[in-house]
Design a protein that fits this description.
The chain is an alpha+beta fold. It has one helix spanning 2-60, and strands at residues 69-71, 78-82, 87-94, 97-106, 109-118.
Length: 132
């Protein structure tokens, strides 16, 4: 009888160890998933800050009215497209994120619309929203 109790106790201990091991594995996978998601979110936040910074650089830069497409020297991912109707589109890209700022050429230079920024292409032709 003693021997049977000893085997039952041993079996109970092994079951508890197996369940504990499975629980720890599940928690480890969950932690890895959360770490991965946090890394992706951090990357997205960095790209968002970078593209917003580029857009602000483009708004304060003194663009010339000459070429239809011009890019800011030393700032990769920032260009200005001018259209035949006098409208302009500032294009900023960083990683997977992009922003556009609409504006227009007036007699005294380029003026950007106050609420003219967008995170989707504001033009009918998608190719007009891409960097050259």
């Amino acid at each position: 009888m003693n021997r049977q109790r000893g085997m039952a106790s041993l079996l109970l201990v092994l079951i508890i160890l197996a369940l504990g091991s499975l629980t720890l594995q599940g928690m480890s996978r969950q932690q890895q998933t959360r770490l991965s998601e946090a890394g992706l979110e951090l990357t997205a936040l960095k790209e968002s800050a970078s593209v917003e910074s580029l857009l602000e650089w483009g708004r304060v830069y003194s663009w010339s009215s000459g070429p239809m497409v011009q890019c800011l020297p030393g700032k990769e991912g920032l260009c200005l497209r001018t259209f035949s109707d006098g409208s302009a589109l500032l294009i900023a890209y960083s990683g997977q994120q992009s922003r556009w700022q609409t504006g227009e050429w007036l007699e005294d230079g380029l003026h950007f619309h106050e609420n003219g920024w967008s995170d989707f292409c504001p033009r009918k032709e998608v190719t007009e929203c891409q960097l050259p």
